[in-house]
Amino acid sequence: MDGNKNSGLSEPPPPAAGELFTFLKPYLRPHAWRIAGIGALLLFGASFAYLEPLVQRQFINTLTALERPQVWFWGILTVLTGALLRLCAAGESIGENSIGARITMTLKTRLSRRLLDLPVSFFHRHGSGYLAGRLTRDIDEMQFLYSAGMTGILSSALRLLGGLALLFVLDWRVGAVVVLILPLYLLAYRKFRGDHYRVGLAVSEANAANSRTLQSTFSGIRLLKSSAAEEKRGERLGREFEQQMILRIRRFRLGCRFRVLLRVIPGGCRGALLLAGVWMILEGRWTLGGLWALLRALDYVFTPSQLLCGGLIQFHSVSAAAARVMQLDRLLPEENLENGVEPGKLEGRIEFRHVSFGYLPGVPVLRDLSFELRPGEVVALCGPSGGGKSTIAGLLLRFFRPESGEILIDGRPAGEYRLRALRRRIGYIGQTGEFLTGTLAANLLLGVDRPVPETRLREVIGLVGLGARLNAPECDRDAPLEENGVNFSVGERIRLAVAREILRDPDILILDETTASLDGETEEKLMDFLLELLAGRTVLVISHRESTLRRAQRRLELKEGRIYEK
Q1: Each residue of 497-534: b (16+ CB within 10 Å) or e?
Q2: Contact 99/147 with Cβ under 8 angstroms?
Q3: Pairing between strand 508-512 and 426-429?
Q4: Which of 105, 98, 103, 89 is nearest to 34 (CA)?
Q5: What secondary structure letter does DSSP report for 53?
Q6: How far, CA to CA in Å, does 344 sit from each of 147, 209, 341?
Q7: In sequence order, what are the beta bridge partners of 413?
Q8: Complete edge-to-edge strand list for the sheet that includes strand 508-512
Q9: Per-residue pLDDT for the chain (566 aa), expressed as one digit of tens each?
Q10: Alpha helical stretches, state H, 117-229
Q11: Can you name the CATH fold of 17-329?
C-alpha cells in the first residue's frame, strides 16, 4: 500500500451554492474592479431596458395619430434607446469573456500544480490521460459559473423584477394574472434539476475516460502497429465515442424537453393577451401602442423567466464539473513535500529496517526487508522479474510508503526530510531514459536547481559521447525533443539520462536496469564510465546481467520478498 490518504475519485455530491462561491472567491477577488464594471453595465442596461417599451408605445401612438413632429422625436429616441442597450450588452460580453478566460487559466495552472504534488501511486491508479481530461474539460465546462452564465442569471433576475413592475404600471390586472402563472417555472425547474446534474456528471466522466483511452492509444502506437491491433483498438475507441454521443444526446434531449415546457407557458399567455387586446382596442379602451407596450412588458417577464430557469438548470449541469474540480483540489499532497529537515549534502548511508510493502491489501511484495548500503559503496541488487527490485527504488525515492518498518538515510528516517530536497540528492536512471516534451536543453537541466553555464553543458554532452551527434545541424540541443525522446536511439537516451544526472550531481544514484537494452560492448563502456565518474557516491545497481552485477562491491539477491546477501 502507498499509505496515501487520498481515496479513489468517487462520484462527488452536488455542491451547495455557498460552497462553490467559497471555492471561486480567491479567483474572483483579483478581478473585483472588472466585475464591478460589469455589474454597473448590467444594472444600467436592465434599468434602461424598461424605458424601451414605454418609448415604443409613444412612437406607435404618435405614428397612428399622424403627429409628424412628435413622430420623428419618438422615432429617433426609439433608435437611440435600442443602440444604447446593445452597447451595454456588448460591454458586458467583452468583460465576461475576458474575466472567464483569465480565471480559467488561473484555475488550470493551480490545479495542474496541485496534481503534480500528488504521489506517484495516485497517477498509477487513475491514469495520466484521465486526469488530464478532468483537468481541462471540467474546468472549461465550469467557466459558466464565473462568466456569462452567472451574469446571465443575475441579469435575468433583475429584468424579471423590473418587467413585473412595468407590467403592473401598464395594467395591474395583467400583472396579477402573470404573477399567478410564474410558479409553473419553479415547478419545471425543480423537476429537471436533478436529472441535469446526473447527466452532466456522466458526460464529464465519459470525457475524462475517453481522454485516458486516447492518451494510452497514441502513446502505445508502436505496440498497436507491431501487433496489427489498430482495428481492434479503433473498435474500442468507437464504442467510447458512441457512449459519449449517447450521453450528449441524452443531455440535449433533456434540455429540449425543458425548453419546450418553458416556451408553452409564455406562448399561451401572449396569445390570450393578443386576443384580449384586440377586443379592448375595438371597444376603445386600449390603444395599439398600449397593447404593444403590454406585449413587450410580457416579454420582459417571460423571457428572463425562461433564461433564469434555463440558467439555473445549466448551473446544476456544470456544477457536476465543478464538484469534480473541487474534489481534485481537496486531495492531499505528498507528506513533507515542502516541510521537514533540509538534507544538504548526503553521506549516502541507506538502511532498510524490517520493511514490508504491498501494492494491494494482503498481497505483500516485500516482507520484513532489512539491508544496508554504506557511504560510497556500489551495491548490486538482483532477483527474478517482478520480485520487487524496482519497488525498493520507489520506496527509497518515497514514491510509496512502507506498510511497516522504516527507511533511514544517513541515520535519519527518510520521512523526516523535506521531500523535494531529498529527491534532488538522489539520482535515478531507468531502462530507457525518461523525457518530457520540450527542448533537449530543458530536459538535461530538469531538476538542476542552480545555474549551469553553457560551457559546462557542452562539456557534459561531450563526456557522455554525444558531442558530435548534438552538434549536427538537424539536432540542435535547443530543438524540440520529440515525445518520449523517440528521435534518439535507446542507447542515446540512456546517455542523455546519464548527462542529466551528472548535471544534477546527486549523492545517491539508482541504476534500474539501465543497461538492459544495450549491447555488451556499449554496456561495458557505459558502466566503466559511470562508476569512474560517480566514484565516492553510493550507487544501487538493479540488474539481471552478470556483466553488470560483477562490477559491484557487494551483491544482494531479492527472493520471495526477502533479501539475501551473496
Answers
A1: bbbbbbbbebbbbbbbbbbbbbeeebbeebbeebbeeb
A2: yes
A3: parallel
A4: 98
A5: H
A6: 47, 42, 9
A7: 408
A8: 426-429, 508-512, 538-542, 378-382, 554-559, 562-565
A9: 454 455 557 778 888 888 888 999 999 999 888 888 888 888 887 777 777 777 777 787 788 777 777 888 888 888 888 888 888 888 888 888 888 889 999 999 999 888 888 888 888 888 888 888 888 888 988 888 888 777 778 878 888 888 888 888 888 888 888 888 888 888 888 888 888 888 888 888 888 888 888 877 877 776 677 667 778 888 888 888 888 889 889 888 888 888 887 788 888 888 888 888 888 888 888 888 778 878 888 888 888 888 888 888 888 788 888 888 998 888 888 888 888 899 988 999 999 999 999 888 888 899 999 999 999 999 999 988 888 888 999 999 999 899 999 999 999 999 999 998 999 999 998 887 788 777 888 888 888 878 888 888 888 888 787 777 666 544 566 767 777 777 788 788 888 888 888 888 899 999 988 877 777 777 787 788 777 877 888 999 998 888 788 888 899 998 888 888 77
A10: 120-126, 128-133, 139-141, 148-170, 172-181, 183-219, 221-226
A11: ABC transporter transmembrane region fold (1.20.1560)
Cα-only R_g, the chain: 34
3-state secondary structure 1-19: CCCCCCCCCCCCCCCCHHH
Terminal Cα-to-Cα distance of the chain (whole angstroms): 29
Q: Write down the CATH superfamily of domain 350-565.
A: P-loop containing nucleotide triphosphate hydrolases (3.40.50.300)
| Residue 234 to residues 128, 237, 257, Cα–Cα distance (Å) | 20, 5, 34
Establish whether domains 17-329 and 350-565 are of one fold.
no
Enter the C-alpha cell of residue 381: 541488487
Instruction: Spell out the domain ranges in the chain.
Output: 17-329, 350-565
- At 138, give phi and psi (nearest 5°): -65, -40
Q: Which three cell numbers stand for residue 269?
A: 399567455
pTM attached to this predicted model: 0.76
Strands 508-512 and 480-481: unpaired
Which residues, in sequence order, are CB contacts of 9 under 8 Å at separation 6+? 126, 324, 327, 328
